[in-house]
Amino acid sequence: MQRRHDLDWVRVCAFGLLVLYHVGMYYVSWDWHVNSPHAGPALEPLMLASAPWRLSLLFLVSGAATGFLIAGAESRATHARPRFLAARSRFLLLPLLFGMLVVVPPQSYFEVLDSRYPGGYHDGFLAFWARYLRGDGSFCDDDGCLVLPTWNHLWFVAYLWVYTAVLWALWRRGRPWLRRAAAMLGRCLCHPAAVLAWPALYLGLVRAGLAPRFGSTHALADDWYNHAQYFTVFLFGYLIAHQAPVWDAMARARRTALVLWLGCWAVLVAAHVVAGGPPAWLRPILHMAWGLAQWSAIVAVLGFARQWAPGDGPVLRYLVPAVFPVYILHQTAIVLAAWQLRPLALAPAFEGPLLVVLTFASCLGGYELIRRIPVLRPLFGLRRQPAGQRTGNPATTPAEP
After folding, report:
1. Cβ neighbours around 277 below 10 Å, total
2. What is the residue-wise DSSP string for 188-237?
3. Distance between CA 196 and CA 194 in Å, rounded?
4. Other C-beta atoms lying within 10 Å of the C-beta of residue 226
5. Long-range CB contacts for residues 223-232, cutoff 8 Å, separation at least 24
6. pLDDT value at position 395?
7. H or E element, residue 144
8. Distance of alpha carbon 339 from alpha carbon 15, whole angstroms
């Protein structure tokens, strides 16, 4: 099977966008781990451009990559197939555990220092780290208590492992059903209108029906709205992985999808800036607009990527294995850099781009160190030995989260 370099590029760019989004979270009025003294609503319309779809896109591409991986496992000897889940568990759960114990704690530490907690905190990071590892629940404010330990931005890894395990169980027990479902999608979504309309309708209805009731918690056990959208797009990515008519339909629908996404973004921004929020009667319409923005943006991204068909090269070969380590490190890097820059009282127009540069530089520098130290490689989703020449599908690379 020929490698899907377009999906490689989509994954790399989507994770890069995630870094930019989290830098933006420092400057908006929305609740985050730390917030700039200059935080306000000015950047929020731009944040809304990617908020509906950036994570759904990552789950869809990860589902497609899992489809390529499972196809590879299926082609091997029967005794090798059960090793698939064990290998994915090592790849996902070891970095998740290490990240929760070592990478994430500074985020919680600076969140405590940001003084939302009565009396502040003055005992230093090592003392806090010990309390973090003990699961200290005494850091509380009017909004509740800080959950420790936590996975913060690494919730994506936890969810991805759960979805992979569920899909693997489905594959083991219901291979014929999955094949029929994939073939049905290939027939039903081979037209641009169909590939735009039906998934968008589903995502809109899910948001209208579940988001007001459950919200978004990233706590796994009670996050029903997110499971309804993210597991579905993950499964959809798996099912269409080998369905060329669906990918071709996305490519043909790309311009229409782009226009729809921009139109829905304008609607969402208009509703966001209305004082007091939109009236109750308008909210179901906005939920449907969110679902349409979510899916049309995904179709536009995947469609343009397939049409442009970006190929392989040294830049892509460097970035693909760097994606997962950079993802693990990036939010802690943002919080640390933002905290160090705060005493300088820089203008946001200068500080923001500087924070972006510092984040990417520190994360890529961290990757350069990690890939050279054998004991660190598996803690950040890299194989113990450097991979040879890249062949096959996107999922065969060690850095596919």
Report:
1. 11
2. HT-SHHHHHHHHHHHHHHHHHHHHHHH-----STT-HHHHHHHHHHHHHH
3. 5
4. 24
5. 226/159, 227/159, 229/56, 229/203, 229/294, 230/55, 230/56, 230/59, 230/159, 230/163, 231/59, 231/163, 231/166, 232/202, 232/206
6. 38
7. strand 144-145
8. 23
CB neighbourhood size of 157 (10 A): 23
Q: Which residues contact 119 (CB under 8 A, 6 or more apart)?
A: none
Residues 6+ apart with CB under 8 A from 104: 149, 150, 151, 152, 153, 154, 332
Neighbours of 173 (CB within 10 A): 9
pLDDT of residue 310: 87
- Nearest CA to 168 among 300, 104, 73? 73
* Residue 119 pLDDT: 66
Output the pLDDT for position 278: 86
Alpha carbons within 13 A on the beta-carbon side of 322: 21
* Cβ 237 vs Cβ 67: under 8 Å: yes
Backbone angles phi, psi at 120, to 5 degrees: 70, -165
In terms of Cα–Cα distance, which of 386, 293, 370, 266 is closest to 326? 370
Contact status, residue 63 vs residue 234, Cβ threshold 8 Å = yes
CA distance 35 to 20: 15
- Spatial separation of the C-alpha atoms in residues 225 and 207, rounded to whole Å: 7
Q: What is the CB-side half-sphere exposure of residue 386 using CA atoms within 13 A?
A: 10
Residues (pLDDT < 70) of the chain are: 1, 76-82, 115-119, 385-401
Q: DSSP 3-state assignment of 145?
A: strand
Joined tokens for residue 163 = 């979805």
Among 14, 328, 20, smallest CA distance to 153 is for 328
In 3D, which of 167, 153, 155 has the Cα closest to residue 65?
Answer: 167
The residues near 399 (Cβ < 8 Å, ≥ 6 apart) are 320, 321, 322, 323, 324, 325, 381, 382
- Give the type of residue at 23: V
Residue type, 166: V
Number of helices (H) and strands (E) in the chain: give both, helices first: 14, 2
- What DSSP character marks residue 101? I
Neighbours of 182 (CB within 10 A): 18
CA torsion 390→393→398→401, rounded to 10°?
A: 150
